[in-house]
Amino acid sequence: MRERSTIAPAEVLYHSRRDDGHHRVYVHRSEEAMLVTNNQEDRSFIIEESYERLQRSRMQYIHLGTLQVRLQTLHRQEKGTLALLVFRDSRWIDDRSIMATMEVDLTRGSQLVYVIPDIMMTIGDFYRNIQLSILTRGYDTWWNGEANLLVTRGMIGRLSNTPNVTFAYEVSGVVDYLTSHGVRALPGRRYSTTDIQGRD
After folding, report:
1. Which of 4, 169, 188, 195 has most Cβ atoms within 10 angstroms of its Cβ?
2. pLDDT digit of tens for each residue in the chain (200 aa)?
3. Residue-range domains of the chain with CATH
4. What is the model's pTM?
């Protein structure tokens, strides 16, 4: 990929292991013009062609470091529209499937959302189960349009074909980097094992 990712430099996120035949940084970027007016639209985070490239790389595992979504309206600004983004891991069938949610105001035409999931999984699970859902408000009178949003998905991750990845993952460095570039970070929801301890 020629275009350098603007998410955060990979060296800020991962360090202490050089890329080799078993481990390397993965950068993904895709764009899609979408019509999201009345119903929720669900998409795999990566497109099928990217998944096929990952399969050909002979890597088995991926660590999800940073996910980014940019929404750009494909109409004039200040039209009173909102979008709700939900990042999901559909392997869960309850509310633990929600990795992150963010409601964004599209008044100025574009918004960026970053998520730092820190998840290790197989490449197949990544393609099939990491999803982006988009729901909008304010498009009740939108009619006869091909697309209202340009959705750009990006990520930085780490590929490996061994279960021992032995890299250092520095979330604080990424948060500092994003904060220094005007991004506000919100903590994610944590689940405890207290409710399930001691069950038969």
Report:
1. 169
2. 334 445 555 555 555 556 566 788 899 999 999 999 988 999 999 999 999 999 998 899 999 988 999 999 999 999 999 999 999 999 999 999 999 999 999 998 889 898 888 889 999 999 999 999 999 999 999 999 999 999 999 998 889 887 665 565 555 665 566 565 555 555 666 667 677 677 76
3. 11-180 (2.60.120.220)
4. 0.79
